[in-house]
Amino acid sequence: MGPRDGLQNQSESVPTPVKRELISRLVASGLRRIEVTSFVSPRWIPQLADADDLAASLPRPAGVIFSALVPNERGYQRLRAAGGVAVVATFISASESHNRKNLNCSVADQIERMRPVFERAVAEGIPVRTYVSTVCGCPYEGEVDLGAGVSLARTLADLGASEISLGDTIGVGHPAQVRALVDAVSSEVPLAKIALHLHDTYGRALTNVQAGYEAGVRCFDASVGGLGGCPYAPGASGNVATEDVVALFERAGVATGVDLDVLVDTASWLEAQVLRRELPGRVYRAERGRKRREGS
After folding, report:
1. Distance separating alpha carbons of residues 141 and 66, to the nearest angstrom
2. What is the pLDDT of the chain when averaged over all its residues?
3. DSSP secondary structure of 107-170
4. Does the pLDDT of residue 232 top 60, yes or no?
5. Which of 29, 52, 81, 282 is the most exposed place for a label (fewest CB within 10 A)?
6. What is the C-alpha separation between 227 and 98, in angstroms, rounded?
7. Predicted pLDDT at 270
8. In CATH, what number is assigned to the domain containing residue 241?
9. For the packed helices 175-185 and 205-214, what is the interaxial angle rounded to 10 degrees?
C-alpha cells in the first residue's frame, strides 16, 4: 500500500521517478501485489496527480500485480487508458459520516457510483478489489455497527468484487472485534475473498493481524515503514508496516516470500532520502538501530 495509501497523506508530493523507484524496490523485495496510485481528482489528492503518467510508465515484472484506486467510472476510464494496472480498487465506508467526508456522498450513492465500474470491469475481465473503511470505528460517529460492514460486504460481493478489504481506518479495533468481524463477514462472503486493512493508531495493528490470520484471513494490506493514513480520519496513524507483518509471520514459521532486509533498506531510503523524517515502523527502527550498533 506504500505507493498509494502511504504517499497520499504526505504533506509534500513525491516526484514520479521516485515513486517508480519505490515500486521497483518493493518488487525487488519479493512483494507481488502492490497498489501503485489512485485515479482521483488532483484537486482532492494532489500528491497522486501523476497517476496517469506513473501507471503508463510502470515496469512489467513477471508475476507482479499492480492495482490502483478509482472513485468512479471516470477514474476507471483513466486507469484503462493509462495501462499497466491489472486490478481495479474501489472504496466505500461502513460509516455514513465518514463516507460523506471522504467521498461527498451517501453510502447508497457511492454504491451507485461504483456500479458502472463493476459492470465494465467484470465485462472486461478486470478484477475489482473493494475497501470497506471504518469497519471498527468512525472518527465522527464512534462505534460502527457490525451489521453495516457485513451488509456492505454482501452487496459488494453481489456486484462482483473479487476481494473485499475490511479497513480499521482509525486503528481502534482489537483482536476480539477483528475475529468477530471476520466470522460475521465470512458467513456472507467466502473467506478467501476477505482481506484486512489495519492501521496502528493504538499500537494494536499487529495483534489484529494475528487475530485475522487465526480467523482464516490470508491477505493483509500493509505499507513500507508504516506510512499512510486517511486524510478524512483525523488523528489516525499510518498502516501497519509491511516489514512488521513480514517479520511477524516469518518468526512464526509462515513463509512470506519477502526479503525483510530489502524492505528495511527501502524504508531507510524513504526516510533519509525521500521524506526526510522518521518513519513509524517498529521492525525498521529496530533493524536500523542494530545495523548502526554493528557498524554495518
Report:
1. 34
2. 94
3. HHHHHHHHHHHHHHHHHHT--EEEEEE-SS-BTTTBS--HHHHHHHHHHHHHHT-SEEEEEETT
4. no
5. 81
6. 21
7. 95
8. 3.20.20.70
9. 40
119: three-class secondary structure by DSSP = helix
pLDDT band at residue 238 using 50, 70 and 90 as cut-offs? confident
Beta-strand relationship, 128-133 and 87-93: parallel
Domain count, the chain: 1
Q: What is the sign, positive or negative, of the torsion defined by CA atoms of 80, 85, 87, 89?
A: negative
Q: Count the Cβ atoms, other than its own, within 10 Å of residue 131.
A: 23
Residue type, 242: T
Q: On the CB side of 120, how many CA atoms lie within 13 Å of its CA?
A: 16
Phi, psi of 172 (to 5 degrees): -95, -10
Q: Provide the annotated active-site residues.
A: 230
Q: What count of residues does the chain have? A: 296
Name the grid cell of 55: 501507471
The rounded distance, in Å, linking the Cα atoms of 70 and 209 is: 26
Phi and psi at residue 174, to the nearest 5°: -135, 165
**Rounded alpha-carbon distances, angstroms, from residue 75 to 41, 43, 72, 109:** 8, 14, 5, 16
Average pLDDT estimate for 41-60: 93
Show the domain range for 265. 2-294
* Backbone dihedral angles phi then psi of residue 128, each to the nearest 5 degrees: -120, 120
What pTM was estimated for this model as a whole?
0.95
Task: Identify whether the C-beta of residue 68 lies closer than 8 Å to the C-beta of residue 89.
Answer: yes
Q: How far apart are CA 39 and CA 43, in angstroms?
A: 11
Q: How far apart, in whole angstroms, are the C-alpha atoms of residue 212 and residue 255?
A: 17
Residue with cell 456522498: 105
| Contacts (Cβ under 8 Å, ≥6 apart) of 251 | none
Residue 4 has what DSSP assignment? Answer: I
